């Protein structure tokens, strides 16, 4: 690592530093610090001139090699360095592995609000201030100038606001008046640094003693560990003293993995060390945070995108200052500035949500393992259905597996996982509602009569995923994406679940103009409606992104609390109901139509089907009474469904790994997806062909190049999409092939995204 002192190489004009700018550029740039005593350190955030604009950058090194044209840093962002050396080293590794711009990863490592940016601001000049003051006092002021009402309105806005963003004025259509007002010396346009500059001086109320700190929380009553939990904890506690190691904590649903995390972290905190805990979904964070705070009080900082920027920034700063020792959050929390890191936990490690699908496309689980390795910490990957990559790493001896084969609840531990029954919809079709089979209706009726709770799972939200014209066969599609619009009954809107566009449902077919549109298919909103009609006395709730909302923890918590208290008889939901919930009263789980996920054009479809169905099946029978699971499907012979009948994870994985090896898919090969998109379909197709040829030429015989091909979702947000896939066992050759493809000059408007270890083919 370079020296972090500001007394490094200098030029005649001051210190020379290497800056990684937050742009899609792979090289760093040399700038001069005007004052040699600036106290600049690695990780400092700066504003630098870059062409005609000013951009954010990070100091990543010092140099004595001055370029021919040397520019000065415009602004050093106030306060201590934005990123410490350990996070910078992690980001450097991520940039190299994921073939991503260093500056963009560094920027992604900061929470919103800590990121500085340069903005153009419009202000009144002293001349403008004087004339406005004269006019306010009743003197001539602007009346002496040839200004219309719009000019005067803009100048008065400036007097009230003191300065306005040029971008905001562009959005309101007022930016066009600036040139004339600037020429008359009434306004000026200047640069202003926004973000971390001018840190808030108001401390949280607790720090200002405006509210009394709570007394120490009473010591919680700890549950008695099972034999397997105690053994896992003993092994992990011994291992953490020996430095880096990665463990797979493979425990069936309800086996008490979280309690093992809590006990181990308590040991770590007692030793004065820090801990990082990652969960895949924002929806899981509030529940897990409640358990951690019950055990550790205010020693927990929560980080996820559902929080307000000020909340995330405050939590991030408390961690960096060492005021808090435990970070808990979703994907981006992998960059949390935890001091003296000793344990990194990735809960539900198999979940695809850990992969960032836009911007810098890192995988938080894999990055968490690397972070633990660099910190000499213990990494724990927890799951009831581990990913095939993690299972394969256990087979290779890279990870060590610890098993929790029984449930933690003493009563539930004495019995096996809930039995699973398959309803073949080809032989036993749904009833008059086209949704619930007679067998499932019978089981739900019995459950209600017994005062027990039911979960119905369907991984598709909305009322009807398809609006089709019976006359001409036309499907109502999103204007921006090559997907059908989903009808949502509560809002009476058609919604695109990819770009978020909404529109009123048409009364006639947009193509043939006949009033013959029909809503087809089923989403959770329709399931809820059917269940309420079929079971009018039942208390029914729905849990999906439409009812919980993204980041609206209070609504989510309210639904979960109602189920936990027994105030809900039937809970309908998407994958939000499949994991992390412990409802003692749920004894029946109904899976309505898993077929739609089984047959996606994705080599991971079978793995994901098994994982999500095993997870939702695990919601049943966690309390005093045994549970059961009913799966309705048109594909009862599908491998994942057959394995589920006996909860045979090991058998499913053996068969699936054999299939993957024969097809040369991960984990037996590495993959890189090259994704292109642009506004013109022909240009994108042509560029995909050039990218493909460049990858073949650069990779040689060591890289298998698949494509080019149109993406399964061919148009997204108005942009045509094509893909090229690279596969091979030699990572070095893959990197060469990907870089060769990325070096191809692309026409204006076409973007290329390099996705290392892609998780989605869509």
Polypeptide structure, described:
The chain is of the alpha/beta class and 762 residues long. It has 5 domains: 10-116, 3-Layer(aba) Sandwich (GIY-YIG endonuclease); 120-194, no CATH class; 227-408, P-loop containing nucleotide triphosphate hydrolases (Rossmann fold); 418-461 and 523-659, Rossmann fold, CATH 3.40.50; 670-756, Alpha-Beta Plaits (2-Layer Sandwich), CATH 3.30.70. Helices cover 32% and strands 23% of the residues. α1 crosses α11 (364-375), α7 (227-240) packs parallel to α8 (257-270) and α22 packs antiparallel against α23 (731-742). The two termini are 39 Å apart. Mean pLDDT is 85; it is low at 1-13 and 197-216.
What labels would you give this structure?
762 residues; alpha/beta; GIY-YIG endonuclease; Rossmann fold; 5 domains; seven-stranded mixed sheet; seven-stranded parallel sheet; 23 helices; 32 strands; globular; disordered N terminus
């Amino acid at each position: 690592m370079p020296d972090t002192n500001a007394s490094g190489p200098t030029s005649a004009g001051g210190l020379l530093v290497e800056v990684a700018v937050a742009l899609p550029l792979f090289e760093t740039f040399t700038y001069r610090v005007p004052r040699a005593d600036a106290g600049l350190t690695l990780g400092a955030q700066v504003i630098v001139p870059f062409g005609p604009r000013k951009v954010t950058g990070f100091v990543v090194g010092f140099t004595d090699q001055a370029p021919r044209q040397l520019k000065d840093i415009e602004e050093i962002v106030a306060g201590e360095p934005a990123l410490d050396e350990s996070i910078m080293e992690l980001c450097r590794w991520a940039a190299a592995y994921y073939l991503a711009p260093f500056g963009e990863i560094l920027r992604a490592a900061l929470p919103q609000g800590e990121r500085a940016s340069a903005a153009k601001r419009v202000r009144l000049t002293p001349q403008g201030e004087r004339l406005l003051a004269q006019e306010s006092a009743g003197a001539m002021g602007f009346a002496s100038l040839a200004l219309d009402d719009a000019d005067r309105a803009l100048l008065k806005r400036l007097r009230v606001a003191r300065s306005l963003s040029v971008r905001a004025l562009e959005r309101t259509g007022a930016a066009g008046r600036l040139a004339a007002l600037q020429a008359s010396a009434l306004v000026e346009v200047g640069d202003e640094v926004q973000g971390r500059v001018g840190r808030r001086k108001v401390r949280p109320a607790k720090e200002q003693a405006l509210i009394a700190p709570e007394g120490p929380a009473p010591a919680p009553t700890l549950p008695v560990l099972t034999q397997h939990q105690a053994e896992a904890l003993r092994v992990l506690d011994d291992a953490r003293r020996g430095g880096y190691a990665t463990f797979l904590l493979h425990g069936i649903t309800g086996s008490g993995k979280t309690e093992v995390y809590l006990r181990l972290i308590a040991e770590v905190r007692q030793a004065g060390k820090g801990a990082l805990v990652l969960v895949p979904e924002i929806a899981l964070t509030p529940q897990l945070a409640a358990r951690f705070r019950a055990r550790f009080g205010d020693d927990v900082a929560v980080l996820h995108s559902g929080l307000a920027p000020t909340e995330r920034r405050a939590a991030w700063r408390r961690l960096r200052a060492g005021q808090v020792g435990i970070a808990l959050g979703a994907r981006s929390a992998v960059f949390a500035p935890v001091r003296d890191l000793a344990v990194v936990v990735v809960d539900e490690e198999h979940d695809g949500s850990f992969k960032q699908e836009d911007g810098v496309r890192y995988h938080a689980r894999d990055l968490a393992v690397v972070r633990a390795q660099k910190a000499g910490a213990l990494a724990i990957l927890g799951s009831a259905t581990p990913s095939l990559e993690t299972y394969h790493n256990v087979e290779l001896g890279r990870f060590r597996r610890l098993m929790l084969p029984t449930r933690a609840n003493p009563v539930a531990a004495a019995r096996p996982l809930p039995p699973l029954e398959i309803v073949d919809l080809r032989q036993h079709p749904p009833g008059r509602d086209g949704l619930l089979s007679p067998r499932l209706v019978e089981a739900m009726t019995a459950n209600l009569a017994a005062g027990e709770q039911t979960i119905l799972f369907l991984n598709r939200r909305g009322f009807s995923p398809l609006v089709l014209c019976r006359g001409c066969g036309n499907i109502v599609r999103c204007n921006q994406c090559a997907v059908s619009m989903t009808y949502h009954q509560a809002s009476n809107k058609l919604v695109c679940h990819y770009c978020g566009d909404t529109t009123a449902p048409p009364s006639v077919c947009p193509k043939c103009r006949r009033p013959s549109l029909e809503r087809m298919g089923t989403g959770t909103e329709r399931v809820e409606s059917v269940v309420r009609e079929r079971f009018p006395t039942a208390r029914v709730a729905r849990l999906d992104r439409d009812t919980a909302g993204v980041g609206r923890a209070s609504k989510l918590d309210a639904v979960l609390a109602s189920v936990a208290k027994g105030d809900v008889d039937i809970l309908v939901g998407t994958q939000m109901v499949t994991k992390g919930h412990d409802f003692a009263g749920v004894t029946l789980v109904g899976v309505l139509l898993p077929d739609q996920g089984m047959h996606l054009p994705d080599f991971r479809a079978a793995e994901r089907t098994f994982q999500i169905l095993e997870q939702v099946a695990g919601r049943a029978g966690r309390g005093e009474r045994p549970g059961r699971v009913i799966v309705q499907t048109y594909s009862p012979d599908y491998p994942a469904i057959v394995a589920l009948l006996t909860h045979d994870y090991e058998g499913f994985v053996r068969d699936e790994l054999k299939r993957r090896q024969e097809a040369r898919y991960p984990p037996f090969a590495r993959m890189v997806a090259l994704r292109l998109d642009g506004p013109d379909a022909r240009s994108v197709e042509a560029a995909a062909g050039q990218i493909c040829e460049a990858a073949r030429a650069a990779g040689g015989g060591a890289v298998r190049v698949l494509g080019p091909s149109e993406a399964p979702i061919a148009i997204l947000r108005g942009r045509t999409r094509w893909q090229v896939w690279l596969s091979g066992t030699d990572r070095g050759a893959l990197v060469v092939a990907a870089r060769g493809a990325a070096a191809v000059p692309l026409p204006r408007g076409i973007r290329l995204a390099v996705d290392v270890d892609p998780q989605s083919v869509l």
